[in-house]
């Protein structure tokens, strides 16, 4: 068995009611609820919501008592009390919304993928550099996953030595009832840009690299001819700038026999051990999700991360906005992961179906 | 739960004593015992052994009663009763031994990696085409693994639909006491040529492809500066000729806390489900090795493959030699896997340590 590790304490709220006010603009993806849950859990106050679909805005207002439904995005941008604008709009609309928030003097917090084109990337880099405002990104598969956070704490404590490689599997279930934009690559950005962005972020985070080069990538629509714009498969191989490597496969092939949306895994190889994160399910067992398996020089250990870490990202982000620090995630890191996603997508070999 | 599958019957010996005679030449790798166990288990008769090291030859002769220690390789090649020459010599010597066997009118059966240079590949292709003799390869991680064989039977039965991707992890423990040739790339061929060859073979086999293109590969010596010729890490991304993809990582980083030499895995993604093979260990459990996990449209199932399949490859190989068929493995397939190994090795980016 491994030595007993002492993990970081569970995070407390970092502000009191009304001390950090945010608004939600663009609720196309349900991730907006994860983003708002995280922020309010860390003490932030949701004041406004705006969405072109009034029913969606009403749903949000119902979940967070006290939230007012704005008549326009501008009404929110005009409110000086709003510090942060959160958005899970259609992926291709996130950068325009975030840039408008930044130009209005606010910080932005967008769902991943945070942007879908190189032009948006340049515009975001320019605006954040010029204004000092933040374009923060909700890479939820790491910052909102206790298993992913626990793995990071193990690495920080030297449990596997130097990290040499991060391999990610991000299978998802496409199911029915998805809105049209899920099938339009111009809107969702392509599978490597969209769900792949989670994984480029994890490669950078766990290896400690500041960037990397896509050495190979592919996309395909193997089995969904009825929705030609869907890329049901994508993968990428990466060489990071510190000599580590990364590999990611994302797909929409979760079979019906799985009880969760996908068997998301992250495998982290170090010089002195390895970690496997079984994020949402541990197939063939009743363990549930949130499992972190550690094998190192001292032995094997399984951690059930549920309840062990909380989600420190959100309180750190709030403090970063108030204190103008970069504790939660640096701007460079958030945008480098997005850039690698775009590069992988842009250079992908399109496989024959 | 999945439907009950009916698997292939356990293989019986295909010949009686003396009906198929083989010899062993070159015992540098312990795999020779796996090869000889497989052949004798299928009914073959071991008649001769030759190795430059008499102690090693004696060890082999002790294990297989009736085996005679030859005074030279030539003594074996001169015996018309010998149908097949098996070799697990130093990797770079396997092709020369096999080619001499072929020129003597025998079939060859060599450990993987079957060859270490493109010149050897060409010579083997030329000789097998010209003579009709076989240059069979012991890709033991598939043909001598019941879990790997069971996975193949599940795929044949349509359990996961069309195979889209094969991902392999081949970690190994370097430990101490390895002979010098393990640290000389000119002799072992490089990590992707050597242990990686298992995985290129699996990609071809499970996807049913007849070839593929290496789109990216890397090798490194990250943490073994004392043995500069060791490549302790390698990986490769492959696009197969039927539109499927493959990825392999091999390494020498198995930590001391693991009870087996390596946590070998194969992950096979299909249009209708996926299979995970946990070959030698199922970390965090007492399941042991040989675990095959299946998740498909119907549910989840775990198979303990131990005792379920036997090793049909060896009997098929014997019959192939007697009947001049290609049931066990085609010559093209065996050499294509070797060619991909060489290509991955030859084109590998050498990562900074």
Features:
homodimer, 353 residues, alpha/beta, Dihydrodipicolinate Reductase, domain 2, nine-stranded mixed beta sheet, six-stranded parallel beta sheet, 11 helices, 24% strand, globular
Describe, in plain words, how this protein is organized in 3D.
Two copies of one chain form a homodimer. With 353 residues, chain A is an alpha/beta fold. The first copy, chain A, has a domain at 142-311 and 342-351: Dihydrodipicolinate Reductase, domain 2, CATH 3.30.360. Helix content of chain A is 32%, strand content 24%. Chain A has helices at 31-41, 54-63, 73-77, 91-103, 118-131, 140-143, 146-156, 185-188, 196-207, 312-323, 331-346; strands at 21-25, 45-50, 68-69, 84-87, 107-111, 135-138, 163-171, 212-220, 233-240, 245-251, 265-270, 273-278, 291-296, 299-304, 349-350. In chain A, the strands form two sheets. In chain A, strands 14-13-12-11-7-10-9-8-15 form a nine-stranded mixed beta sheet, covered by helices on one side. Chain A has a six-stranded parallel beta sheet with strand order 3-2-1-4-5-6, with helices on both faces. In chain A, strand 4 (84-87), helix 4 (91-103) and strand 5 form a beta-alpha-beta unit.
């Amino acid at each position: 068995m491994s030595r007993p590790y002492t993990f970081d304490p569970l995070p407390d709220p970092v502000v009191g009611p009304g001390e950090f006010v945010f608004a939600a603009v663009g609720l196309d993806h349900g991730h907006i609820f994860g983003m708002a849950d995280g922020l309010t859990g860390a003490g932030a106050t949701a004041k406004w919501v705006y969405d072109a679909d009034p029913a969606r805005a009403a749903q949000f207002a119902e979940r967070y008592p006290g939230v007012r439904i704005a008549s326009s995005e501008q009404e929110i941008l005009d409110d000086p009390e709003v510090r942060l604008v959160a958005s899970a709009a259609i992926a291709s609309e996130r950068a325009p919304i975030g840039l408008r928030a930044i130009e209005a003097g606010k910080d932005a917090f967008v769902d991943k993928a945070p942007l879908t084109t190189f032009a948006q990337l340049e515009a975001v880099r320019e605006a954040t550099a010029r204004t000092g405002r933040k374009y923060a990104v909700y890479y939820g598969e790491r910052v909102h996953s206790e298993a992913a956070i626990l793995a990071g704490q193990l690495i920080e404590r030297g449990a596997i030595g130097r990290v040499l490689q991060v391999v990610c599997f991000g299978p998802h279930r496409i199911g029915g009832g998805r809105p049209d934009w899920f099938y339009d690559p111009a809107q969702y950005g392509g599978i490597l840009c969209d769900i792949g962005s989670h994984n480029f972020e994890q490669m950078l985070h766990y290896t400690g690299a500041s960037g990397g080069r896509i050495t190979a990538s592919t996309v395909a629509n193997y089995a969904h001819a009825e929705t030609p714009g869907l890329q049901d498969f994508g993968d990428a191989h990466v060489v990071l700038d510190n000599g580590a490597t990364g590999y990611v496969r994302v797909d929409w092939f979760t079979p019906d026999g799985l009880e969760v949306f996908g068997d998301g895994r992250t495998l982290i190889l170090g010089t002195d051990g390895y970690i496997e994160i079984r994020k949402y399910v541990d197939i063939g067992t009743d363990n549930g999700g949130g499992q972190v398996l550690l094998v190192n020089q001292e032995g094997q250990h399984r951690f059930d991360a549920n309840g062990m870490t909380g989600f420190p990202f959100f309180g750190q982000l709030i403090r970063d906005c108030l204190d103008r620090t970069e504790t939660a995630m640096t701007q460079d890191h958030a945008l480098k992961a997005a850039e690698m996603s775009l590069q992988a997508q842009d250079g992908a070999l399109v496989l024959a179906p």
